[in-house]
Q: What sequence folds into this?
């Protein structure tokens, strides 16, 4: 189901790979949501549905659209963060400190920035299962 990741603190390459993994998962989530929306739409016979069934269908579609929107916003925030990291020559601290990024993102940049400030300069390896 999930895959094991090895994180290296103070490693821009690992942060980039982790953000890429999150981006890929968001893309996968968008595709799965769209498939579920298509299945729901094709399985419904609207003229024969009761009002309650139509309301339930509407709620399900609303939930799917909300989830899809959140996944798209996550991809956008990750793309912005990666572009800021590149703009600051790979400095994650400088990219996270950028006021424009802080203002227009749903990512928890304070937590990300604190995680990098609290690290030693040497690389630490953590295995996540």
A:
């Amino acid at each position: 189901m999930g895959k094991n990741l090895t994180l290296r603190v103070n490693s821009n390459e690992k942060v980039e790979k982790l953000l890429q993994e999150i981006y890929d998962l968001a893309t996968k989530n968008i595709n799965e949501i769209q498939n579920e929306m298509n299945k729901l739409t094709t399985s419904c016979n609207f003229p024969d549905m009761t009002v309650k069934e139509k309301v339930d269908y509407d709620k399900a579609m609303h939930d799917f659209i909300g989830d899809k929107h959140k996944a798209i916003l996550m991809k956008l925030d990750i793309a912005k963060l990666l572009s800021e990291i590149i703009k600051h020559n790979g400095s994650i601290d400088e990219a996270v400190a950028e006021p424009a990024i802080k203002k227009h993102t749903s990512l928890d940049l304070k937590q990300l920035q604190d995680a990098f400030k609290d690290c030693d300069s040497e690389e630490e390896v953590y295995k996540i299962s």
In short: The first strand starts at residue 5 and ends at 9. The first helix runs from residue 12 to 43. The chain has a mean pLDDT of 75. The chain is about 70% helix and 10% strand.
